[in-house]
Each structure stands twice: as C-alpha cells, then as structure tokens.
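Lecture notes, part 5. Sequence design as translation. It can be helpful to think of inverse folding as translation between two languages: the language of shapes and the language of residues. The source text, in structure tokens, appears below.
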C-alpha cells in the first residue's frame, strides 16, 4: 500500500476513535430540581433518570416490594401551545409501544389539562384514533399538572403491579407529542428515532437498565454516522480539492494523482462500510424505516462506485470520449458531495444526536473543507480573470507568453512538465 493511503487510513482511525470517544450515554441521573420536587411530593427514589436524547423526559420511581406498589413521577417540557405526555408499562417480552398500558396527560391551547388511561394497540400504530380505554393496571392518585419552577408538565400516579409484570425486568415506555384533538385524543407523535427509542427495560430492585436491542442499535447507529461523516463527508471532498488545486495551480504537486486516488479510495471504503452498516440497520429495524435517508444513501453508494470505475475505465488523451468522461466524472463528483452533506444532515436529524457534540463536529468538518475549497477557488478565479482579460500588470506580474499559456499540462502521472510553464517575453 502506498504511503499516502497508509497516512489516510491512520487519519481515519484517529478521527474515528476521537469522535466516538465523546459520544455520551443517553440516560443520565435526574436533574437536582426534578429530584428535589419528587422528594417534596413524598416520592422515595429507587430509580431516577433523565433521557436527554429521548425527548428529554425525566422519570422517577419507587417500588414498595411487599405490596408491589409503584409510585411514579414523569416530567417533560411541552413548549408548544398544545401537547401531550405519556408513560406506561408493557407486559410483553419486548419494550415497545404496541401492548403498552399508558397514562397520558394532554395540554390544550386554552390551558386546560386533561388526563386518562389508554390501551395502545396495533390499530394505534396504523393511525386509528387513540381514545381513553380500560387497562389492566390498578391506578390511584393519578394526576397531570404543571410545575412552574421546573417548567415541566408532570404525570404522577400510584400503580399496583399485577404478577405478570416482572419487577426485575420491567418494560416501561414514554412519549411526547404535539398535536391533540377533542375528546382526550392525542395525535401521532413525531417520526424520529428519539420517539421510536423511548423505551427501556429496567430492574426496579436495583434501578439499573438491562441490555436491550435499542441500546445496541444506538451504538451501531453512531458507528454508521461516524463512518459516513469521515468517508463521504470528509475524505471525498478532500480528494476533490487535491485534484482541482494540486494539479497545476495554485499548488502544483508532482504526485497529485496518487494522493487524489488514495484519498478517494480510502473515503470510498470507509463510506461504503458505513453504508453497509446502514443497510443492516434498516433491515433490522422492523418497526420503523426512513425511506428518504435510505434512498439518498443508495444514490451516494451507487455513484461513488461509478466514480471508482472511472479510474479503471480511463480513455487515452486522444480518445474522443475523454472529454465526455471528464465531464461526467466532474458532474457526478460534485453531485456526490452535495448529496452526501444533505444526507449526513438528515441522518443527524433522524438520530437526534447530542447537539453539544455531533452538530459542532459535523459543521466543523464541513466548514473547514468548505473554507479550504473557497480559498482555492478565489485564487484560481483570480488567476483566470487575469489570464482572460490580460490584467497581469494589475495583478503584479509580467504579461505571459500566449503560446506557452495555451498549452495545458495534462499528464496521466500528474507531473507538470517544464515545457508547459509560461515563458515571459
């Protein structure tokens, strides 16, 4: 393997480890204010977490083991004029929405707060009305209120758990939505991973989270995102910058083609690996899908593969198809860069990754690449205008020899020949 390719691989590994190292967990301890409010309401805390990346909901619980009585307090901000907050338990083997026995509080535009019990079925998933119904939980002290000091809307209730609910492996589900209708009817929540992932299995005796597919998928999604950001979003654009600016002007480099091909090849390998992980995630996620994001991903992979084939199917200098091949190569390359940045942004929006880390990292990488590209473009266009309109005196140089400047340095090995350099009169 050539030294440029080795250097690029080491760079990718370093960036992968550094980016992955600051991804944080998605469940944290409750905030001090929420915990203090729970204690003021005589809620002895066994389990208390704040789910930053999953709707920002905070949940506190206490289990009375002998009586199997569970006290819960669930809080979240409902910042729109209308909204709803839901929490429930699912006795099925898997923590998911369908099958959940839910408590839902609704906020209306006029300020009224209503709350009731709901049985979430498969009909709810396909868009049928969700109306209050009987559930198999014995509920008492159920209310929905607003706490001004927290700016939280809070569900509080006491539940006596039937024996079919395993306290050492309890599936609880929560959700936040915006749209509501009359007759205590919450409408569909937003379709994002922060909503689809709002489930967890916990051991109420220890307060610890148990391993789940959702947690495993989240880590795999992060790997998918990191690989695509590095491959499609960083290395491919850098390869374009090398080919455009290191061939002749402003920084001629004898080995520009080797660096260009190495950068593109490593970017293609890393990006394709991330794409393959994304395909696997799409097939493994049986309860939801993101077709637009997937379509963009297939487009990027397909045309990136086509770009790699251009390196092998390269006509000779005298071949009449070389001009069309070069035009296609350039158009597809620039289209890939635009599509990659759009799809990476879509992926971050879908995953609702931590804005404190992921968005700055993504915009930092994109901004640096765009800044370098812009600087080189300004210099190149400055030279082009000087050549086009004969402004070399204004530009601070002598008038170049027109015959020498009309000969363009184009060699397959990327070398700039001495005979191709301008000769001053």
């Amino acid at each position: 393997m050539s030294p440029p390719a080795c250097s690029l691989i080491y760079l990718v590994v370093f960036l992968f480890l550094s980016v992955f190292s600051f991804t944080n967990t998605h469940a944290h301890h409750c905030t001090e204010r929420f915990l203090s409010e729970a204690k003021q309401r005589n809620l002895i805390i066994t389990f208390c977490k704040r789910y930053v990346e999953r709707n920002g909901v905070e949940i506190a619980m206490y289990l009375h083991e002998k009586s199997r009585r569970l006290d819960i307090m669930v809080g979240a901000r409902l910042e729109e004029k209308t909204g709803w907050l839901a929490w429930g338990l699912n006795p099925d083997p898997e923590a998911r929405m369908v099958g959940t026995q839910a408590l839902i509080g609704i906020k209306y535009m006029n300020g009224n707060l209503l709350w009731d019990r709901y049985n979430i079925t498969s009909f709810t998933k396909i868009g049928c009305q969700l109306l209050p119904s009987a559930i198999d939980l014995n509920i008492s002290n159920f209310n929905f209120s607003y706490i001004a000091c927290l700016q939280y809307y809070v569900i509080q209730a006491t539940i006596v758990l039937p024996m079919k609910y395993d306290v050492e492996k309890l599936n609880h589900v929560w959700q936040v939505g915006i749209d509501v209708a009359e007759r205590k009817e919450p409408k569909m929540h937003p379709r994002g991973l922060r909503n689809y992932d709002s489930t967890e299995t916990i051991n109420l005796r220890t307060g610890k989270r148990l391993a789940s597919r959702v947690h495993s998928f989240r880590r795999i999604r992060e790997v998918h995102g990191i690989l695509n950001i590095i491959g499609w979003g960083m290395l491919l654009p850098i390869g374009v910058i090398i080919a455009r600016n290191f061939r002749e002007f402003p920084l001629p480099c004898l080995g520009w083609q080797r660096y260009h091909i190495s950068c593109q090849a490593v970017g293609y390998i890393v990006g394709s690996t991330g794409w393959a992980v994304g395909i696997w995630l799409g097939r493994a996620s049986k309860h939801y899908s993101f077709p637009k994001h997937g379509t963009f991903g297939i487009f990027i992979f397909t045309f990136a593969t086509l770009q790699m084939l251009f390196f092998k199917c390269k006509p000779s200098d005298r071949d009449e198809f070389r001009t069309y091949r070069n035009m296609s190569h350039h158009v597809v390359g620039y289209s890939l860069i635009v599509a990659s940045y759009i799809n990476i942004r879509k992926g971050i929006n879908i995953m609702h990754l931590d804005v404190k880390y992921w968005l700055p990292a993504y915009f930092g990488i994109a901004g640096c690449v765009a800044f370098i590209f812009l600087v080189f473009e300004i210099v190149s266009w400055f030279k082009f205008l000087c050549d086009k309109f004969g402004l070399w005196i204004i530009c601070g140089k002598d008038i170049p020899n027109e015959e020498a400047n009309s000969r363009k340095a184009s060699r397959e090995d990327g070398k700039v020949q001495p005979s191709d350099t301008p000769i001053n009169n």
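The translated text above is only one of many valid answers, since several sequences can fold into similar shapes. The longest strand covers residues 138-147.
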